[in-house]
Design brief:
By secondary structure, this protein is of the alpha/beta class. The protein has a single domain, classed as Rossmann fold (3-Layer(aba) Sandwich), CATH 3.40.50. The protein contains 6 helices and 7 strands, in the order H-E-H-E-H-E-H-E-H-E-H-E-E. Strand 3, helix 4 and strand 4 form a beta-alpha-beta unit. The chain is globular and about 45 Å long.
Length: about 190
């Protein structure tokens, strides 16, 4: 009986790994076929949870911000992209300072603010309106002119792609297939 149980558990994990690989894309595959891709990046590490009560989108001192680790994480990610020859056609960011700072410290080029990337976590913006703006942005991107980078928040990425990411994590959305993948970075 123990042997059968172990076999079933082994098969579950074997099948789970196959499933996981079908729902992820490697950096190498992104590099080879990136024209129709959008990379969603969750802002780098900004310790804490949510934003302070006195939050003001125009005042970084009222927001949760990147710490030294988050700044280094952003720089390392930018270097990783550059070392792999990945250049973004356009970079978009949420209005939140931790997203703008992530985009800045990537050193991948200028970025454009877009309200479809703002966090609706604490109700600072309307969820439906934000996701509608994001859908409009996605639908108006040239499918053959990517890759595009969008620096945003956990809730936005999870709502659009269905993928939950840690700080600095990335998901890839295929504009043609209309499917999202977890971006796997091999170190």
């Amino acid at each position: 009986m123990k042997l059968i149980t172990l076999y079933i558990i082994f098969q579950f994990f074997l099948n789970f790994n196959v499933f996981a690989s079908e729902n992820s894309i490697s950096l190498e595959n992104l590099k080879k076929n990136s024209n129709n891709k959008v990379v969603f990046m969750r802002h780098a590490l900004a310790p804490g949870y949510g934003d302070p009560i006195n939050f003001n989108v125009s005042d970084c001192t009222t927001q949760r911000n990147l710490d030294k680790t988050g700044i280094e994480q952003s720089k390392s990610t930018g270097t990783l992209f550059k070392n792999n020859g990945i250049k973004f056609t356009k970079i978009f960011s949420s209005f939140w300072c931790r997203c703008k700072d992530t985009a800045f410290f990537l050193k991948m080029g200028n970025y454009e603010l877009h309200k479809g990337l703002n966090s609706f976590f604490q109700g600072h913006v309307d969820k439906e309106e934000t996701l509608s703006e994001l859908n409009n942005l996605i639908n108006n991107l040239n499918q053959n002119d990517g890759p595009y980078l969008m620096v945003t928040h956990y809730v936005v990425i999870q709502a659009f792609t269905g993928i939950s990411l840690p700080s600095g994590g990335m998901a890839v959305y295929d504009l043609k297939a209309q499917k999202a993948y977890d971006l796997k970075i091999d170190n």
